[in-house]
UniProtKB/TrEMBL annotation:
Acylphosphatase-like domain location: 4-98
Positions in coiled-coil regions: none
SUPFAM superfamilies named among the record's database cross-references: Acylphosphatase/BLUF domain-like (SSF54975)
Keyword Transmembrane: yes
Keyword Ion transport listed: no
Transmembrane segments: 6-27
Alphabetical keyword list: Membrane, Transmembrane, Transmembrane helix
Pfam families, alphabetized: Acylphosphatase
Family: Belongs to the acylphosphatase family.
Name used for this protein in its record: Acylphosphatase-like domain-containing protein
Length: 98
C-alpha cells in the first residue's frame, strides 16, 4: 500500500554547529529516500529544522522514518514529528527544496 507522510525533524547541536547539522540531515534524508525508492521533498525551515513529505510503500516509509529519526552519524535528531498526508499521484523523484 502506498502512503505519504509529512515529517519534521528537530535537531540538536553537532559539536556546537547547528547549521552544519541541518545541512547534513537534509542530504542524509534525500539519500535515504533514494535508497528506499521514495518520492517527495525535503527542505530546511526558517527555524533550523528539516521538514518534508515522503511517499512510497508503507514498509519502506517505516524504515526511512526510523533512519531519519536516528539521523546521520555524528548528528542528533531530538524529536521527529510525523503526520499522514494524501498521496500525490504521478510524483517522481525526491527533491531538495529551497
Amino acid at each position: 500500500m502506498v502512503k505519504r507522510v509529512y515529517f519534521l525533524a528537530h535537531g540538536g547541536m553537532v559539536q556546537g554547529w547547528l547549521i552544519y547539522h541541518v545541512a547534513r540531515l537534509l542530504y542524509f534524508t534525500r539519500g535515504r529516500a533514494a535508497e528506499h525508492k521514495l518520492t517527495g521533498w525535503v527542505r530546511n525551515t526558517d527555524n533550523n529544522k528539516v521538514e518534508g513529505e515522503a511517499q512510497g510503500a508503507e514498509d519502506a516509509l517505516s524504515k526511512f522514518l526510523k533512519e531519519v529519526d536516528k539521523g546521520p552519524r555524528g548528528s542528533q535528531v531530538v524529536k521527529l514529528d510525523k503526520e499522514d498526508r494524501d498521496v500525490v499521484e504521478g510524483e517522481e523523484g525526491f527533491e531538495i527544496r529551497r
